[in-house]
Amino acid sequence: MQVRKDMLNKELQPSYWMLKFSARLLMNKTGVRLLNSNSARSRGKKIDGLHCEEKFIQSGNGGPDIRVRIFKPLNFVENLPGMLYIHGGGMLMGNPEDYLAIIKNFMDAKPCVIVAPDYRKALSAPYPAAFNDCYDSLLWMNENVKELGIVPDKLIVAGHSAGGGLAAAVSLKATDTNEVKIAFQMPIYPMLDDRQNTESARDNDSPGWSSKSNNLGWSAYLSDLIKQRAVIPPYASPARAKDFSHLPPTITFVGDLEPFRDETIQYVDNLNKANIPVTFRLFKGCFHAFDVVFPKLEISKEAWSFLLNSYREHVDRYIYSK
User: Fold this and answer.
1) Residue-wise DSSP of 204-259
2) SS3 category, 110
3) Which residue in 286, 277, 62, 59 sits closest to 185, CA to CA?
4) Residues 280-289: pLDDT tens digits?
5) Is the model's pLDDT at 322 over the cut of 80?
6) Which residue among 46, 94, 146, 161 is least crowded, i.e. fewest CB within 10 A of its CB?
7) Where do the structural domains in the chain lie, given as residue ranges?
8) 2-9 contacts: CB < 8 A, separation 24 or more?
9) Which fold has domain 5-317?
10) Residue 37 clears pLDDT 90, i.e. is over it
11) pLDDT tens-digit readout, 123-175
12) Residue 140, CA atoms < 13 Å, CB-side half-sphere
């Protein structure tokens, strides 16, 4: 899908060439390593007005200890909703501290306790490293609800982009195994399908995250499975799941010009067919992560309003209601 400047929402058009240029960093390993080096500088950063903690929890799969960030309101009230928030970055880059503005938005919309894992990245640790780190973090939350002060048996799983794909995978396993009770999930414009064979995923040259970036992310994440010529499991690529009937209520949105458009729509359709409640919006003229890159634009405010209002409604309906 070729994306021209005039196809973008008018507010986003001025950023077209700047993002086209900067997106080159996302198309090769050297650029990704440079971005990760810059990202590392934010490690340990805190959010003003919140209790912020760093903790290392044990891997359940023989991996290294998992660094997690824990965020709580200062005037902490017990039995708040507990959210596992998984950051984005194409499976290749980033850390929780890069997404503090998103975490603060959720906290301001409805106070909660957020646990954000700094999962392993695909260039040095392919699948199942990131998935295991995120799922182990969910298990740790579930085992420590009392210490964390969160409502038991009603956890939230959320994430943007690659984090959205990991959120969908984590929710899938949690509901497959019935190990953890998920109240609802929020996989936002999620990275779901390694096959990259939909119209929106093929030859997409959208500013920001393109088909070339997408291929780099999936190739790195699945590199061990590809070498082994192994079957790609749904926990690696959630679009490959066959049974969606046990998944929790879902909130998601996606831009109509980005690679993940069609796989997100298909995911929503599969949930609807399985009679899973879904709250979904398609934002016209929008590229990947427009709401995060340019949060002050009116189209981004509209997306944030949709997400945060839906989040508040779901907390009241699926966590606080009796």
Assistant:
1) ---SSS-HHHHHHHHHHHTHHHHHHTPPPPTTTSGGG-S--TTPPPEEEEEETTST
2) coil
3) 277
4) 999 999 999 9
5) no
6) 146
7) 5-317
8) 2/203, 2/204, 2/205, 3/204, 3/205, 3/206, 3/207, 3/257, 3/287, 7/257, 7/285, 8/257, 8/285, 8/286, 8/287, 9/283, 9/284, 9/285, 9/286, 9/290, 9/299
9) Rossmann fold (3.40.50)
10) no
11) 999 999 999 999 999 999 999 999 999 999 999 999 999 999 999 999 999 99
12) 24
303 vs 190: CA distance, rounded Å? 15
285-315 pLDDT, tens digit per residue, is: 999 999 999 999 999 999 999 999 999 999 9
**pLDDT value for 211:** 95
How far is it, in rounded angstroms, from Cα 150 to Cα 144? Answer: 9
Determine contact, residues 125/59, Cβ cutoff 8 Å.
no
Structure tokens given for 2:
């070729």
Output the average pLDDT for the chain.
95
Residue with tokens 């990259």: 196
Span 166-210, pLDDT tens digits: 999 999 999 999 999 999 999 999 999 999 999 999 999 999 899
The span from the CA of 182 to the CA of 155, in Å, is: 5
Structure tokens at 160: 């943007």
Nearest one of 180, 313, 189, 197 to 255, comparing CA atoms = 189
